[in-house]
């Protein structure tokens, strides 16, 4: 079925067909072969794409592309093999800055189609390995309002008093109250330029989000807890439920619209049809690393390394626990593994609903 229905990747409005053919290994990662499909996905792999704007020179054609330096190695390949192969197969020359130096990869060649072919192959290769990079930022709604923090600390105190005898339940698995949040989606922003691009896109979303809620803060209620696996006796994460106080779906609409904009711009990979609106309150990852963030609903990157705890009594006694109400008035681009003066994540960008 993967052959009949290959994965399609959208890069800058162009569609690539991904073929699952392993070619070589580079630092324990697989390079994969890709073919460019263009408007008609039945076309051959390296058909030229007229959407590229090439610079004509005395010796032929030239195209410069911005690429984060952490991705250079995937274009170079082990002992330069990937770069040599691309140059040989497309009859082009590929110039790559020194490792660690932000700059542009420049493709030159005598034939326009050859340069286009090389560029499309580089772009898809970059996109493939970009998806394997750990996320650096995430879109978030802060839940660390003073009342919510106070009630969360009370919840923690009562759970430890009443459920500490249950397997795996101790203080180390509770979220830092100052970092209570909803993760809307994760971002791998690999250069200052990409961070700036994400911030600009967030600013462009402000007007449409204000229209959804009428240009004022959105009253939210945080009440109830839930889990997402099948056995409450073996849970690794517990979530607080968050919803609009008026019962509307405005919070969901805002989150889904943000994801749609960032996915369309190529800054985010879609993980769910709809954003899962849950705030992590207990997570066994915190036991090993108090700074570990919850990666939305899919934060099970190392299931074999995860521990579980028995949440049956917690759910029975605190399943309807009310953490309080507050007015949501901002969306943040939060930096992973960071802390600002308030104790929340440092924001690279923010928009307000006012």
Automatic annotation (TrEMBL):
<dbReference type="GO" id="GO:0003723">
    <property type="term" value="F:RNA binding"/>
</dbReference>
<dbReference type="InterPro" id="IPR004087">
    <property type="entry name" value="KH_dom"/>
</dbReference>
<dbReference type="Pfam" id="PF10469">
    <property type="entry name" value="AKAP7_NLS"/>
</dbReference>
<dbReference type="InterPro" id="IPR019510">
    <property type="entry name" value="AKAP7-like_phosphoesterase"/>
</dbReference>
<dbReference type="InterPro" id="IPR036612">
    <property type="entry name" value="KH_dom_type_1_sf"/>
</dbReference>
<keyword id="KW-0694">RNA-binding</keyword>
<dbReference type="GO" id="GO:0006355">
    <property type="term" value="P:regulation of DNA-templated transcription"/>
</dbReference>
<dbReference type="InterPro" id="IPR047538">
    <property type="entry name" value="KH-I_ASCC1"/>
</dbReference>
<dbReference type="Pfam" id="PF00013">
    <property type="entry name" value="KH_1"/>
</dbReference>
<dbReference type="GO" id="GO:0005634">
    <property type="term" value="C:nucleus"/>
</dbReference>
<dbReference type="InterPro" id="IPR009210">
    <property type="entry name" value="ASCC1"/>
</dbReference>
<dbReference type="InterPro" id="IPR004088">
    <property type="entry name" value="KH_dom_type_1"/>
</dbReference>
<feature type="domain" description="K Homology">
    <location>
        <begin position="59"/>
        <end position="127"/>
    </location>
</feature>
<feature type="region of interest" description="Disordered">
    <location>
        <begin position="28"/>
        <end position="48"/>
    </location>
</feature>
<protein>
    <recommendedName>
        <fullName>K Homology domain-containing protein</fullName>
    </recommendedName>
</protein>
<dbReference type="GO" id="GO:0006307">
    <property type="term" value="P:DNA alkylation repair"/>
</dbReference>
């Amino acid at each position: 079925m993967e052959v009949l229905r290959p994965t399609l990747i959208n890069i800058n409005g162009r569609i690539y067909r991904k073929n699952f053919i392993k070619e070589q290994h580079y630092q324990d990662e697989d390079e994969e072969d890709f073919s460019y499909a263009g408007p008609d996905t039945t076309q051959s792999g390296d058909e030229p794409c007229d959407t590229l704007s090439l610079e004509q020179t005395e010796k032929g054609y030239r195209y410069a592309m911005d690429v984060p330096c952490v991705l250079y190695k995937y274009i170079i390949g082990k002992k330069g093999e990937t770069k040599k192969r691309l140059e040989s197969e497309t009859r082009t020359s590929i110039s790559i800055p020194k490792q660690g130096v932000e700059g542009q990869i420049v493709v030159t060649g005598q034939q326009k189609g050859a340069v286009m072919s090389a560029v499309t192959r580089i772009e898809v290769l970059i996109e493939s390995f970009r998806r394997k990079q750990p996320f650096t930022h995430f879109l978030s709604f802060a839940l660390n309002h003073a009342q919510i923090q106070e009630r969360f600390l009370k919840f923690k105190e009562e759970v430890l008093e009443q459920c500490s005898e249950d397997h795996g339940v101790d203080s180390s698995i509770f979220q830092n109250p100052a970092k209570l949040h909803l993760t809307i989606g994760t971002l791998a922003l690999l250069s200052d330029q990409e961070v700036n691009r994400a911030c600009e896109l967030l600013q462009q979303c402000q007007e449409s989000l204000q229209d959804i809620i009428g240009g004022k803060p959105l009253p939210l209620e945080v009440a109830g807890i839930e889990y997402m696996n099948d056995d409450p006796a073996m849970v690794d994460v517990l979530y607080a439920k968050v919803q609009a106080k008026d019962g509307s779906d405005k919070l969901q609409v805002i989150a889904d619209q943000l994801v749609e904009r960032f996915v369309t711009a190529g800054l985010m990979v879609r993980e769910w049809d709809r954003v899962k609106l849950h705030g992590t309150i207990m997570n066994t990852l915190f036991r090993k690393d108090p700074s570990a963030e919850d990666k939305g609903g899919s934060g099970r990157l190392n299931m074999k390394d995860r521990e579980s705890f028995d949440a049956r009594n917690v759910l029975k006694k605190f399943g309807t626990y009310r953490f309080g109400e507050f007015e949501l008035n901002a969306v943040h681009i939060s930096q992973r593994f960071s802390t600002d003066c308030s104790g929340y994540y440092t924001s690279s960008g923010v928009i307000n609903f006012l």
